[in-house]
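We read letters as residues; the fold follows as tokens. A sample entry reads:
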Amino acid sequence: MSNLNAKGCWIIGTDTGIGKTRVAQILQTWLPDVFAMKPISAGAEFFENQWKNEDAKLLQLVQPNRSLNQINPIVLRSACSPHIAAAKQKMHLTLDFLNQSTIDSIQQAHQIKPFKIALLEGVGGLSVPIANDLLLIDWIQQSGLPILLVVGLKLGCLNHALLTKELLNSQGINSIGWIASEIDREMPYQAENIQTLKEKLTMPYLGLSSYLKRFNPERSYASWHPMKLQEELNF
């Protein structure tokens, strides 16, 4: 991904369904010159003559000048691991194909409205298979881009977050920071869990993304500061 015409950052999570898209929405809303995309998705519905992924539609809500094809170039229809969904569609996903489709989308989006940084939302967790011989972390490592880690606050999050940190470190992937994502308002000892993560994760804590049934940038933004990410990315 070295020929991107903008800086890039992956938004990854400790699991699936833990708030990566919400974080991408907030960053797209509050940071200048940002393009938020989901290079590959798994799970879509056919609507208005197009297969549409729900996360991609949410990202389009905060950047209506972008097409779904730019935001989400590879749409896998089945809601399952990408390598299984791709096989069902008889698609052969290679690193070259993934990179080229992502770069093409970024360049198309940049031509329509220039931006300084592309936010690439991952799919699932780091070890999810994209193909039989390719994990998400392999793609991230090859891209050379840093990551922003979203930790879904639920029972087991300490284990998931620390295992993710160890995997990132073992592959030499740069971590810009981490965000706590409130996905369970009734989680016991939430503050204690966040404090433990602050002590154990060797990356800056950027704040809490609050639980909301519907996206509200003002309320989501109230408990953390995306400008810290802008400072980390130096743009």
About this structure: The two ends are 19 Å apart (CA to CA).
